[in-house]
User: Which sequence fits this backbone?
């Protein structure tokens, strides 16, 4: 289940919170330490793929599947999150 900001928490026994986000490229990862919490942010568990033509390296000129973040889902989640928080704060900045 996704939280309001598009992050899906997962269980981890190391004391580190693992979260999956629509906005993170599936091959990227980040570690954050914030307010005494250790957070490991990853892309979607089941990523979307895009067929792209390699420009260099051993697969140059060939088409390969690359995992990608889902821009539309990320954009909608961010827009909803900002609208909810700006509305709660009484701001009319977002229209």
Assistant:
């Amino acid at each position: 289940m996704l939280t309001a900001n598009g992050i899906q928490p997962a269980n981890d026994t190391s004391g580190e919170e693992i979260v999956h986000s629509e906005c993170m490229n599936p091959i990227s990862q980040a570690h954050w330490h914030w307010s005494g919490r250790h957070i490991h942010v990853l892309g979607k568990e089941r990523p979307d793929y895009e067929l792209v033509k390699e420009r260099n390296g051993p697969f140059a000129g060939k088409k390969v599947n690359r995992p990608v973040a889902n821009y539309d889902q990320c954009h909608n989640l961010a827009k909803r999150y900002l609208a909810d928080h700006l509305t709660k704060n009484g701001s009319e900045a977002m229209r």
About this structure: Residues 7-88 form one domain. Residues 71-88 form the longest helix (18 residues). Helices lie at 71-88.
